[in-house]
Amino acid sequence: MAFNKVVLLGNLTRDPETRSTTSGASVTSISIAVSRSYVDKNGERKEETSFIECDAWGKQGETVAKYFSKGRQILVSGRLRQDSWEDKETGKKRSAIRVVIEEFSFVNDGKGAGASGGGSSVSRDSSAVDNSPVADVDEPIDLSDIPF
Q: Is the dihedral of CA 64, 65, 67, 71 positive or negative?
């Protein structure tokens, strides 16, 4: 069984770039900065930032290009895709992992359009997203049922 799913919350590091493939398909590329805070072995608080390249295809990509810009926060979910190519200058094989966006959400980050509204979600299949709160369940968890 294979499972390929990633969820990221971060800020765009540049404005979206839209282009067309040779077959005429539209793709919008964005780069997201995702940060992680942790405490090192000396007790010092550290922050680590990763820069992740993402692609949104078709209408979804057009929506990203229209409503997002550098610095705006976005929540994306999708799948990882590895691209491989041969460097034209050196002739060496190169590869990179990118996220193919399947769903994204506007995040109320106080910046840009929609800052006053709540978060909304746009998915690849345009199905409605259930944002209703989950009922609190106060049942104890039996730790022996956990497989690890």
A: positive
